[in-house]
Amino acid sequence: MKNKHKQKDNFQAKEMKIDYYKIYVLAYNNAVDLVAEARLLFEHKYFSRAYTLAFTALEEISKSQFAADVFTNFSKEEDFLNFYRNHADKIMRIRWVHYDANSYPHNIIWIGPNRDDVEKIGASKPFLKKRNNSFYVGIENDKIILPKNEISEKDAKEIIHTVDIAFQRICEITECYGHNIGTKGFMK
Scanning 28, 133, 160, 174, which has its CA 20 to 30 A from the CA of 61? Predict the structure, then answer.
């Protein structure tokens, strides 16, 4: 108990130019909003846009966790400032959730109504190229590609599931197991 109080004092004693705790909370809350909007788009069969928003939610979760790492002195402020606008780095830092989303019991979804009515989901890795294809008209191998043709219902469902698992695991690590906010609980 004494050690926890000492940690809090260390957090408060560090002078930072930016309020990293506030970034942690706001980016996390933005991710919650983004995945809620992704679900709405999914329900209306806008799978490519649902994918885009869910992917962006993962990036915001990554940013949130890194901000928490700076707040708890696990990471350096200058590292965050170099990181937070880099899409590839944000996805790289949250790769743990892809593993978790594909591991038991997180890869099982109850579809009801009976207890045994479950579906096993195998979530694909989130790749920046796929995110870009979900949002932009592009050219690949001399062919025009359209977002609605690049992302399937399955793709959108899998990434929304991955975001849900990220929220679940963050809650488990911080609320249930009592670890500090940020990635330290995941990186052990």
Answer: 133
